[in-house]
Amino acid sequence: xxxxxxxxxxxxxxxxxxxxxxxxxxxxxxxxLVTQVFFGLVYIFLYTTLYAGGSPDLLxxxxxxxxxxxxxxxxxxxxxxxxxxxxxxxxxxxMLVRPVDQHRFWVARDVAGRLVGAMMRLIxxxxxQLILPKELRISLPDGALSFFQFAVSLMIGCVCLCELMSIxxxxxxxxxxKRGISAILNLTMMTFSGNVIPLTLFPDALQTIIRYQPxxxxxxxxxxxxxxxxxxxxxxxxxxxxxxxxxxxxAIGRSMWNRRLNDLIVQxx
Amino acid sequence: xxFIEAHSLGKTYVRYAAPKNGGISRLWxxxxxxxxxxxxxxxxxxxxELVGLIGPNGAGxxxxxxxxxxxxxxxxxxxxxxxxxxxxxxxxHVRHLGAVFGxxxxxxxxxxxxxxxxxxxxxxxxxxxxxxxxxxxLVDALELEGFLNAPLRQLSLGQRMRAExxxxxxxxxxxxxxxxxxxxxxxxxxxxxxxxxxxxNEKNGxxxxxxxxxxxxxxALCSRVMVLGHGRLLYDGALDLLLKQYDTVHTLRVVYExxxxxxxxxxxxxxxxxxxxxxxxxAVTPTSxxxxxxxxxxxxxxxxxxxxxxxxxxxxxxxxxAL
Lengths: 269, 323
Prior knowledge:
The complex is a heterodimer of chains A (269) and B (323).
Chain A: H1 2-6, H2 9-22, H3 26-50, H4 56-71, H5 73-76, H6 82-89, H7 92-96, H8 102-131, H9 144-175, H10 179-192, H11 204-212, H12 215-218, H13 220-227, H14 232-262
Chain B: E1 4-17, E2 31-45, E3 50-54, H1 61-69, E4 76-81, H2 90-94, E5 97-101, H3 113-123, H4 128-141, H5 157-169, E6 175-179, H6 187-204, E7 207-211, H7 215-221, E8 224-229, E9 232-238, H8 239-246, E10 250-256, E11 268-272, E12 275-280, H9 287-296, E13 300-306, H10 310-320
Parallel strand pairs in B: 3-7, 3-8, 5-6, 6-7
Antiparallel strand pairs in B: 1-2, 1-4, 8-9, 10-12, 10-13, 11-12
């Protein structure tokens, strides 16, 4: 047991270090805060106009969905270019002489950056809610249990997202440039994670597909429970889908990483 | 059994390139090229040696280092380092080696360097007491006190390189790879770094493999060099012997009181202002034969014997070996 715990030490340390590092980027957090509040309000005005005379419940749910999307924007669209830089500069050579599991190392690092980055924007954004007119505010969660379900699923969702991103990184190691894949990915992510239009607003016929695809696991799945407390079987199903995706994405990511690392020729070395 | 033993090690890369002719077809056609980065290299290195690896760009230095670190798998030959085959169990192998790649960094840009060292402690699974002791010793030797809590981005290049070295040596590796460790450093920093490396090698018996284009580094640190060119190991032996081999041309700078009557001196004569630059090969024309004739050509005001600069010697060697 002790040796098992000990073998996790480098990954916990990289997590802690990345989290500490994130807290230094206060100007970036402020910039993000302003952008996210602005976009949140734009979307909310849009939906308010759209739903004029419609169901007030649906409008309230949509406003909450939009706010949660904006609050966790930094988690979904992180801008840690470190791995890309290492690949471009050849600094990745150092990675190859380290006795650690590189895939796990980078996923741990990514989770830390995303979670802490999101927290730094989340807290002031919650404070801002207090000064907003009531009809523009985020609603409270559907009870304490609902909030607990949301929080747990969000953590799992973040890991799931980072596993997905590690696949993108593996592709970057092949193409040596992140721009092409990022352009494709950003659009896909924005659409299928619910950032452009809440996934709950997609047609009912598509809901089964849309809820269970990997992009929905990070933020859409937790938000649904924030809004409507899940029954135990529902909750179990949600978590099972999230964890299932983690395993699938990790298997793909790991095999791609191993292949890439094995035939990586360090640039300019 | 030698610490490092390489036996006819070879590595061929496959590279894809656009075909020479063909316009739009370049979009889907590509040509396969095989590049022999290293071929038939055999050498042994003993524990505690400090060996220099030189050669022009593209000679196979990096390939050799990557093979020894286990980053690359060779296409032919075999190699053991400390009894292990590097590429077979890379994770176990790299635990015992350290590396400094001169133009890259292993420390985190935005966090205090102490934190980067903490991460290295956990990566190499060093217990805290050993780590603290080692860190104190390295910080002392590399004069890093006062910088431990500064993030890397605030350090000067010299300080940064010392921090990188500290990071590479925290786990007390038996084998240290240094790739251009003094690149871009000022004279004082270079001297300090060399002194430190020499001490680390002598005191802790760390085997060091140094690749550099800085011949002063070589002279100061390495008694043995391996010269690589076109993927082949061309020379493996003492540095001074190598230099002597190419130190064949001597240069005399002579200034006369009046225009001298040189006549036919058995050497090359070039005029540079009021001085005459005489180059000759002592093996052909012994100095004892040349000097009296130079002195009798006129009344000599000053005369200096110019020593060959190491860079010039190496350049001549590369040229003669057609590198």
